[in-house]
Amino acid sequence: MSCERYHDWINASVDGTLDSVERRELEDHLAACPSCAALAADLRRLQQLAQGLERLAAPPSLWTRIDRATRESDPRRRWRPGAMWAALAAAAVLVLAVASTLLLVRDRDPQPGTPAADPGASSIEVARTVEAELRLAEQHYENAIAGLEQLARDRELLDPEVAATLQKNLQVIDGAIAESRSALQMQPGSHPAQQSLFDAFRTKIALLEDTIYLLSEIRRNDQVSGTASGTNGDQSS
Amino acid sequence: MNKDVFMSATIRISVVLVALLSAARGEAGPDRDAAAAALAGPLALQAGAGAESGSQQTWSRTFKTGPHGALELWNLAGDVTVVGGGGDSIAVKAIKRLHRGGGPSDLDRIEITATETAGRVSIRTVFPEMKHVSAEVEFHVQVPAESAVTVQTVSGDVGVEKVTGAVVLESVSGDVTVSGARRLIRAKSVSGDVTLTDAAGEALDVNSVSGDLLLKGLKARGCTLQTVSGSVIASGAACDRAEMKSVSGDVEYSGSLAPGGRYDFKSHSGDIRLTLGGSTGFALSASTFSGDLSSQLPLSNVRESERPRHGPRTQRLQGTFGDGSAQVDVATFSGSVVLAGGK
What does the pLDDT look like over B75-114, one tens digit per residue? Predict the structure, then answer.
């Protein structure tokens, strides 16, 4: 087997999607191939670095560029894997940004049993800061979701029942977002409401990512089949 | 959000489940046909001997793989059952079936392709364009128990029994049922339920969008169980780490905790009920915005948040049971939290 084939396996290994047989074969290869072993080490290091990413903000223009690229390209070519991963990476960066903000907010959330903040000017200031950070975090999520919704808009390509299932569950999540938001208007410092809001955002992003991946696979197969149709022999049994 | 959740989400993206839908959209047509053809292997096998009728054909094949072989099965429509046992061969029986319209010639056009390389058997169905015809291919497969099994279906239930090798199961609109798996890696469905009985694994990923996740006797180093509108119910569970989430469904965990384990239970509008047995102590952090919160276990170092003078009865509870070695986080928005002792 060539090293190129093992590169896919290295990716899968880092993602944790390699099965045991492949993993054993890959490990044998890595033991004998310094080049592939170095690649595997680099990818694992990248994964660790990603886990430790600090707060970053994706430029708003990124979404515009992604959207423009998908609109302008030939429909059969516009879903290059790179474009999808760029979109997902952008979403991931935004989610990381929100995560950092949320951690800040959580740190300020009073712990059970601790006395309430002094009802003075300082508490009002803290409340305003928390509200501002919450709004900022919400904005990050909304930006990410808006971008993903744009990318997932061709849901009519899916089987109607599956599309309906996805749509119905997106509505369930939207309901959770609306309830949490309403609760936060009443009690901006409510930890359960904050947590529920951001959990709902994360769930929605995950579902949209799945939908986008699904659509990209449909387009990818269209592309592959377009190439293969001319050479595929008659294999009827 | 913690970094683990982010990584989990990122890794989850790579799951191939949704790829199955590439050939599942709507009515049969050129796209579906081409997508199926694109996924077909290079070798098409003739149907083996079997019961034949106007609306049914059988196909069978046996592959000598050794006790640690691997099966990869991709099916567009029809149920798939895989049973682990003895021997060193993978035996595949497929039943092509017409439900509506068509005739024997249409059954002939449904291809089952197979490749076998170094103990790895790959089976795929290729459905041609068949207007006004409804057909399926039902698979019954016997594998050596220690085989690795990967099954992906678009429309059809998937059932796997007594397979101790690595198992990955994905269906778009069917139910996924697993029993006796010792190395389950992933069980997913978009609209079906996922039911696991006496399953075990290192890092389980069990997921559905609208279906329920029902797990009995689950044993895992780590497990992530998530659904949007279904419920997550684990009984007799023993997990070192568990993350169980639903948006509108209930979350129930009945079983034991591991010393030093971490457990995260969340639902937006569903109830969360934990029935914790065994002797492992834990530190509890639980909250609900408008539901009720109660513990039938004696907690020490209890700290409860003050209730606001106005608005919903937001509740938050922290406390310790026993030595507090495990960490249990529970959060729901409008549901209730009940913590009870088990056997």
Answer: 988 999 999 999 999 999 999 998 877 777 888 889 999 9
Q: How many CB atoms lie within 10 A of CB B322?
A: 18
Q: Do B276 and B209 share a structural domain?
A: yes
B268 and B130 in a single domain? The answer is no
Which residue did the predictor score with more confidence, B22 or B106?
A: B106
B44 in A contact zone (CB under 8 Å): yes
Asked if residue B132 belongs to a domain, the reply is yes
Q: A179-198, pLDDT tens digit by residue?
A: 999 998 888 778 888 889 98
Q: Is residue B119 located within the same domain as residue B209?
A: no
Q: What is the least distance, in Å, from the CA of B237 to any CA of chain A?
A: 24
When pLDDT is cut at 50, 70 and 90, the band that residue B134 belongs to is confident
Tokens of B335: 């549901």
Question: How many Cβ contacts (< 8 angstroms) between chains A and B?
Answer: 228
Q: What is the CA radius of gyration of chain A?
A: 23
Q: Are A99 and B34 within 8 A, CB to CB?
A: no
CATH class as words, domain A60-225: mainly alpha
Residue type present at position A35 = S
Residues 27-86 of A with CB under 8 A from B: 47, 50-52
B210 close contact with A: CB closer than 8 A: yes
Name which of B10, B38, B210 is nearest A165 (Cβ-Cβ).
B210
Residue B100 shares a structural domain with residue B217: no
State how beta strands B200-208 and B219-227 pair: parallel
Those residues of chain A that have pLDDT short of 70 are 1-2, 4, 45-131, 155-156, 214, 216-237
User: Are A112 and B47 in contact (CB < 8 Å)?
Assistant: no
Give contacts of A235 with chain B, Cβ < 8 Å.
40, 44, 111, 113, 126
Provide the ipTM.
0.76
Domain count, chain B: 2
* Structural domain harbouring B258: 193-343
**By the CB < 8 Å criterion, does A2 face chain B?**
no
With a CB cutoff of 8 Å and minimum separation 6, the contacts of B147 are B65, B67, B68, B69, B70, B71, B84, B90, B163, B165
